[in-house]
Amino acid sequence: MALVKFPLIMADGFKANTLEELKEHFDIKSVLGYFRDRRLIRWLKARNYVEEVAAVEKLSKDENNLSRKLGAIFGFEIEGDDEPDITEIMRRLRQLTADKELLAQVEQELTDGSALVVFNQSEFDAEAQDFDRIYLASSQFVIPLTETDKTYIGIGENVRAVIKSDKIVDFDALNITFERIRFDDDYQKTVAKLTEEATSNRAEELFEEAQDAAYGENDWTTALEKFKQSAELGYTKAFGAVGYIYYFGEGGIEQDINAARHWLKLGVEKNDSNSFGRYALLLSRDDASEDDKREAFKCMKRATEFAPEDSGWWFLLGEMYDDGRGTKKNLAKTVECYEKGVQFGNSWAANRLGVMYSNGEYVEQNPRKAFELYKKAVELDNINANTAAVINLAGCYRYGEGTEKNSALAFKYYKQAADAGDVNAIIAMGEMFRNGEGSVDKNFKEALRYFQRAANEGNANAMNSVALIYDQGGYGVEQDFQEAFQWFKKSAEAGDPNGMSNLSLCYLWGTGIRKNINLAEYWMKKAAEAGAYYGMLQYANDWFASKDRNNYKLAEMYEQVANAGYGEAAYKLAMMYLNGWGVQQSTEIYEYWLSKSQELGYEPD
Q1: In angstroms, rounded to a whole number, what is the distance separating the alpha carbons of residues 471 and 494?
Q2: What's the longest Cα–Cα distance across the chain?
């Protein structure tokens, strides 16, 4: 059977079909490859080159100086040993590794010419471009990034691939793989640094996306998920944000104190100032243990140390010193913390410090300084509207405390707070319209509108004010005793002492309701128990003028009011002892109560 003829393709691409063509385009590497896979023998036999066949068949794959001997057969002198024999290569590799499976694989690939083994950079540079699989033996090799589609396998310990790049190389895109090889230290540092930067940048991006979702789109579910992703990438601020959402149950997220505690504690371990502060808030709840409160104080103190310019933490630390929460009550520290809060722009600290200067609490009383602090508090919080500060500033202008009276500015700030929904400001607006204060014209219709607004929110004092408007009538409101009675009743039942005393007068005189002395006495007693002594005095005076009066009970009532510090009641009681009305006549007791009324500054008409 005739042998199939096939060409030998040489390194220059020429297809050699004759011995002359082979010699003309001869290259030892190609011939070595054909020798190892036995195609050289088959090619020679198919062409009956008997002498060459006999000479080649005498050679083995493990032959020493194989390249020179092969070259000699075809008339070429090969300098050196371009192709180290496999036996020598394997001997050297066995000194580097005892991995039999790996050694067998290398030997097979060397035999069939599909791989290269190099022991130094020079060998690598000279031959690596011609192979796809390259074994790097116990050394350090600079890997060219221009050569793609390569697999590098390390043999021995500490084989390093030196990557000359200041960027992270996408080896997948280059189809370059590494097995049993580590990168050099410089490239590892570059990768670590750039990976950390990329991770940090992504974490910050996620945090910003979470903030946009929460505060821009009011999508707290998405915000929570992105805050968590940011935290998982190590972004410090994200831990406090997740804990905050769980603690306050923001945006419909179910409140979860345990989850809040978990995330805030992680933030504390990361030294996040917000986590310290928020963890302190969680630990210092009213139902917290004393140990938790002490830990809360430490955390809040740490928050001010990590973020000294965060004014909120100074204010809250001041509150802890003020309340003695988690630490000993310390008045000097309280003032110091509030002052720090003001220094860094905290509206609530400014307002609290203003109250202290207004009342002379821990500091020397100074109405002017209180006014300036209230004003600063309002300026600092002109967006979120610290309504407590707005009302305090309005009060300064209304009553001339620390500044000149200015009803127009008082009206302006009360309206600002009222528009924000503050009940006290709403009532103050009603009072200004009811009283016609300064530049504000008396207008019962407007006053009623504000009082009813507060009353509809359940404010008992405002209910009493609504009733007084209907009771008096005028200035745009028609007098209506029955409507007044209904509002007095609502106010009294809601617990307002003035409402109770006014309701008792309705029953006493039968105003807006059928006269009922028993109910009059009942509600007056309730008013007295609630401290409405002025109303009790008014009731007593009205009852004194009534034909249904009970002098014995009147004397008791006047004595109760006189003991509460009302000079008029002391004078009326003196007259009752002078005349023996409801009491045993006594000049001595008369003189005592008369003197008492004078001490209290009462002068009869």
Answers
A1: 19
A2: 162
Question: Which pLDDT value is given to residue 242?
Answer: 95
Distance of CA 124 to the CA centre of its chain: 55
Lowest mean pLDDT among 21-25, 105-109, 380-384: 380-384
196 Cβ contact list (under 8 Å, min separation 6)? none
Q: Tokens 């209904």 correspond to what residue? A: 486
234: tokens are 């190590």
Strand ranges across the sheet with 115-118: 115-118, 133-137, 150-155, 176-179
Residue tagged 């992105």 (tokens): 226
- Judge contact between 538 and 561, C-beta under 8 A: no
* Burial call 392-411: b when 16+ CB within 10 Å, e when fewer: bbbbbbbeebbbeebbebbb
pLDDT at 537: 80
Question: Tokens 């004092």 belong to which residue?
Answer: 461
pLDDT in tens, 54-84: 998 988 876 777 788 888 888 887 765 445 5
Neighbours of 503 (CB within 10 A): 32
How many CB atoms within 10 Å of residue 42? 16
Backbone angles phi, psi at 130, to 5 degrees: -95, 0
In a 13 Å sphere around the CA of 50, the CA atoms on its Cβ side amount to 0
Q: Are 138 and 92 in contact (CB under 8 A)?
A: no
- Beta pairing class for 133-137 and 8-9: unpaired
Give bridge partners of residue 474 from the DSSP assignment: 477
Pairing of strands 15-16, 140-142: unpaired
149: left (phi over 0), alpha (psi -120 to 50) or beta: left
**How far from chain centre, in Å, is Cα 103?**
58
Q: Which helix (H) or strand (E) holds 365?
A: none
CA-nearest of 587, 588, 585, 589 to 559 is 589
Are the C-beta atoms of 244 and 277 separated by less than 8 Å? no
Say if pTM beats, i.e. exceeds, 0.90.
Answer: no
User: Which value, to the nearest 10 degrees, does the dihedral of the CA atoms of residues 412, 413, 414, 418 take?
Assistant: 100
Q: Which residues contact 111 (CB under 8 A, 6 or more apart)?
A: 36, 61, 86
Q: For the CA atoms of 328, 330, 335, 338, what is the dihedral angle to 10 degrees?
A: 0
Q: In whole angstroms, what is the distance from residue 313 CA to residue 26 CA?
A: 85
Asked if 99 and 81 touch (Cβ cutoff 8 Å), the reply is no
**Which residues contact residue 381 at a Cβ distance below 8 angstroms, ignoring those fewer than 6 apart?**
347, 348, 389
Q: How far apart are the first and last CA of the chain?
A: 152
> Measured between alpha carbons, how far is residue 126 from residues 87, 120, 131, 353 in Å?
21, 10, 11, 81
Q: What is the mean pLDDT of the chain?
A: 90
CA distances from 413 to 221, 384, 401, 417 (A): 37, 14, 15, 6
Please report, for the chain, the start and end positions of each structural domain, with discontinuous segments joined by +. 1-81, 84-183
Residues 6 and 196: their CA atoms lie apart, in Å, by: 57
DSSP, res 137: E
